[in-house]
């Protein structure tokens, strides 16, 4: 069975436990008690301060482990007493907190060894796998082709339902995925069932029955408390075999997920998480406390794991709908109200706390109810402090965005606001929101449309990333600012740009017009790239494009169609547009013209 240690290991654990107790006995008779946590939430403060700790009260000392209560009586024993002699003079018994006396010996030995990294190894041997990925990312400068393929490695672990959980960035833009069990020389083909790039999680499945022989699944646990020990298991760079890194929890709070560029709950630990560790479990006791996914650059031994609430949100969404459902947002930009003069200006009475609404996404349901300069007082009955935080646990606080992100799509929330000196309460429907400029775009080719050598694309942050690591400073400043700050005004809206001009006689004089937003086609505002294509194809004699900086492009429609064909052939471009722009019939007027 998963997690059952050998008899020798169990006896060794008991010997270590008894030896520790004997060396702690004083010269006079005393009673020792190793008592239970009962529940972490019954005594969270003491639990947070140490995984195990001692106390003295009425000549009775306590040594705490989770879920098990040990009692040992030592007579006339001291630190100089040999361990074996001391053990013979100490009568010990074990009491299970749940009253199961028969299971107590095994539970005691298992819990006594729980802090040992070897126990994490035993749990992981039949569960943690090494993942080999071949991936090919698209070129956003040349959106009709991919870049050279690359190989990478990561970790994953088996969960219920014959599934493998790993990081999304381990399999992003994958073309082929293999997995290998610990101790096996064989690799098995895996398929990606679901990917959540915002939460950096993915589920893999393996169809080969041979792979599942001798495997066990790991169970998800709870969010660990501060200073609780965890063991990160995986296959980091520097070797081929499984590796275990031990550390303690140092912080629990919403953190920027690098891969998905989203703010979700994360756990900071002082164990090293290196390339290759990604996707491996962080084990606490006999359950998974999180999934390793990133580290802090320019810092040593600071890593981050994805906590169980985020993992469950992802998995349950996939189980219910068959696809990744995303994380909800209220679509708000808020400002803290910590300044007393600011609160006074908005007529907030003493004792009232909340955050100031500065911007509202027009595509969100919040736009129907909330107004700029509203003060959000509470979310689902949970009061919001002036700094935007809400109570979490054990006197910890986190931003109220965490409460929003844990809602399921189309769930409702009761939002209380302070407006014009009065309190109001609204029921707001929550759902995932798409930004005007996508922050990532994995596992699919970019959209594009070519007309007379003019290459039109929707602006995305990956396009700006093509300008290099310092893209914020090297990419076109105007496009960068719009990508980071502007909100969509309606659903489906895109910011369409002319990215480049493929030179030809038809477009001579326009070759320097690049990285400019297309605002209008034939006098009509452009909603998105598909709308631009429709406006172009509905033209009769000429086509006019209005761009940034009051620039204008005018082309003869029929001449431009014929020119498109030879330009595509010259540049070896297979199609004038990406597949997502095709009509239901599978072609367009321009596509048909190019085929002639």
Automatic annotation (TrEMBL):
GO terms for molecular function: serine-type endopeptidase activity. InterPro entries: DEGP_PDZ, DEGP_PDZ_sf, PDZ, PDZ_sf, Peptidase_S1_PA, Peptidase_S1_PA_chymotrypsin, Peptidase_S1C. Residues 437-580 form the Protease Do-like PDZ domain. Residues 330-430 form the PDZ domain. One of its GO terms (biological process) is proteolysis. Gene3D superfamilies: 2.30.42.10, 3.20.190.20, Trypsin-like serine proteases. Keywords: Hydrolase, Protease, Serine protease. It holds the Pfam family Trypsin_2. It comes from the Eukaryota. Belongs to the peptidase S1C family. PANTHER family: PROTEASE DO-LIKE 10, MITOCHONDRIAL-RELATED, PTHR45980. This is Protease Do-like 10, mitochondrial. It comes from Sesamum angustifolium.
């Amino acid at each position: 069975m998963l997690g059952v240690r050998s008899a020798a290991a169990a006896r060794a654990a008991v010997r270590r436990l008894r030896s520790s107790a004997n060396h702690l006995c004083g010269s006079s008779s005393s009673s020792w008690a190793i008592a239970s946590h009962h529940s972490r939430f019954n005594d969270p403060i003491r639990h947070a301060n140490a995984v195990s700790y001692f106390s003295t009260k009425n000549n009775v000392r306590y040594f705490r482990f989770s879920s098990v209560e040990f009692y040992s009586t030592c007579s006339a024993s001291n630190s100089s007493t040999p361990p074996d002699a001391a053990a013979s003079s100490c009568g010990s018994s074990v009491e299970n907190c749940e009253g199961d006396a028969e299971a107590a010996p095994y539970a005691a030995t298992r819990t006594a060894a729980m802090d040992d990294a070897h126990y994490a190894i035993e749990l992981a041997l039949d569960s943690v796998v090494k993942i080999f990925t071949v991936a090919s990312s698209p070129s956003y400068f040349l959106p009709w082709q991919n870049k050279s393929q690359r190989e990478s490695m990561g970790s994953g672990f088996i969960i219920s339902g014959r599934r493998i959980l790993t990081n999304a960035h381990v399999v992003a833009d994958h073309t082929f995925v293999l997995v290998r069990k610990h101790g096996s020389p064989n690799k098995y083909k895996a398929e990606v069932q679901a990917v959540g790039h915002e939460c950096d999680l993915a589920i893999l499945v393996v169809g080969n029955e041979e792979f599942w022989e001798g495997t066990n699944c790991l169970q998800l646990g709870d969010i660990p408390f501060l200073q609780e020990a965890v063991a990160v298991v995986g296959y980091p760079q520097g070797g081929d075999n499984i590796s275990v890194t031990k550390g303690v929890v140092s912080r629990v709070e919403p953190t920027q997920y690098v891969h998905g560029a989203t703010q979700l709950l994360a756990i900071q630990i002082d164990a090293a998480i290196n390339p290759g560790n990604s996707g491996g479990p962080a084990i606490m006791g006999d359950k998974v406390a999180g999934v390793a996914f990133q580290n802090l650059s320019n810092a040593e031994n600071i890593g981050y794991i994805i906590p169980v609430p985020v993992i469950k949100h992802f998995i349950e969404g996939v189980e219910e709908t068959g696809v990744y459902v995303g994380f909800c947002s209220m679509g708000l930009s808020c400002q803290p109200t910590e300044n007393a003069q600011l609160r006074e200006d908005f007529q907030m009475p003493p004792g009232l706390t909340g955050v100031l609404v500065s911007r509202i996404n027009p595509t969100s349901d919040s736009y129907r109810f909330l107004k700029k300069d509203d003060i959000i007082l509470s979310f689902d009955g949970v009061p919001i402090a002036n700094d935007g935080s809400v109570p979490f646990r054990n006197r910890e606080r986190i931003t109220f965005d965490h409460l929003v992100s844990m809602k399921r799509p189309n769930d409702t929330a009761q939002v209380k606001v302070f407006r014009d000196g009065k309190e109001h309460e609204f029921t707001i429907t929550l759902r995932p929101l798409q930004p005007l400029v996508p922050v990532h775009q994995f596992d699919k080719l970019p959209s594009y449309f070519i007309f007379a050598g003019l290459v039109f694309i929707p602006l995305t942050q990956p396009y700006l990333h093509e300008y290099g690591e310092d893209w914020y400073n090297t990419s076109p400043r105007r496009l960068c600012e719009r990508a980071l700050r502007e909100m969509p005004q309606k659903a489906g809206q895109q910011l369409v740009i002319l990215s480049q001009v493929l030179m030809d006689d038809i477009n001579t004089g326009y070759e320097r017009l690049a990285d400019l937003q297309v605002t209008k086609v034939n006098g009509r505002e452009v909603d998105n790239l598909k709308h631009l294509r429709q406006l172009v194809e509905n033209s009769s004699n000429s086509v006019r494009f209005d761009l940034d900086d009051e620039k204008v492009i005018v082309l003869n429609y029929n001449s431009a169609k014929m020119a498109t064909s030879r330009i595509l052939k010259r540049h070896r471009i297979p199609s004038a547009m990406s597949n997502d722009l095709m009509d239901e019939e599978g072609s367009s007027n321009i596509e048909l013209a190019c085929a002639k």
